[in-house]
Amino acid sequence: MMRAAFDRRVRRLGLTRSQWLVLSLLHRRPGVSQSELAEMLEVERAAAGRMVDRLERRNWLVRRPDRLDRRVNRLYLTAEADAVQAEMGRIAVELLDDAMAGLGAEEREALSDMLERVKAQLQGMSPRAASSPDARPGLSP
Amino acid sequence: MMRAAFDRRVRRLGLTRSQWLVLSLLHRRPGVSQSELAEMLEVERAAAGRMVDRLERRNWLVRRPDRLDRRVNRLYLTAEADAVQAEMGRIAVELLDDAMAGLGAEEREALSDMLERVKAQLQGMSPRAASSPDARPGLSP
DNA sequence: AGGCAATGGTAGCCTAGGCAACAAGCAGGC
DNA sequence: GCCTGCTTGTTGCCTAGGCTACCATTGCCT
């Protein structure tokens, strides 16, 4: 429902929530590879790749080959994307605020905290959990 | 992540979480129409219709015409669907329990309650909110 | 140097959902 | 009776994601 609400609100900008997540991430870390992007978004490489396809087709970002490793594409936002990115961020905050209108400050804190814990739990049972480099994924080591 | 985790667990049964939601609902209320189904699942009529397509194609349910209103299809589970439905329910409960393993009983209660409130808030701003029959959709009556 | 495993990216097939346009059917007003 | 408007369902086009198989490249190890 959050996704749907967000998409409804930013439709006029010609983007979706998922696309905004990419833009936002690329704004903070320009030059990441597609694999890195996929991992950060917690999504399959294929899905990330197609996302990049769509965004590139609409000129929101550019693929540029890495000079050291010919396999990887480094991703960079275009100027327009950089411009719209902030606006989307504002909308995201607004939506979050509206959605939690019925909750007090401590409740929001608690909700956020609990969801983080649930997320960690779910991450621990995801197939991608095995390759965690340093974090202990299991629950009973 | 919940959806993904659930789908991973029930894959061997040849179904998905969304499909299970339909089966579960139809088990409790056989003979609902597609529109009713869509509303109960909080999904567009088109999406519900395609869902029914897939489930019918795989013989999990049957469309039967209503005798009074030739527009509507009434939906009924097949025997196999009825059988597998309970199993899926058990898996759902298990998953929920696993996901909230890091939370105490009161926390779970609180989380559930808060999410309900957030959901209500989001429902109030959805486009389908206007046609609510009795409930007041606004936030400050 | 050569081979082999790991990594990055892509394409194919699938489910899932949104929005819009449409046809068929129903119901109420005149 | 007839027309007008609403409801039900379907179809088309779109994004989004999962899984698998595959190709190219890289890097390690012998």
Automatic annotation (TrEMBL), chains A, B:
Keywords: DNA-binding, Transcription, Transcription regulation. Residues 8-108 form the HTH marR-type domain. The keyword Transcription applies. Pfam families: MarR. It comes from the Bacteria. Coiled coil: none annotated. Residues 121-141 are annotated as: Disordered. The keyword DNA-binding applies. This is MarR family transcriptional regulator. It comes from Siccirubricoccus soli.
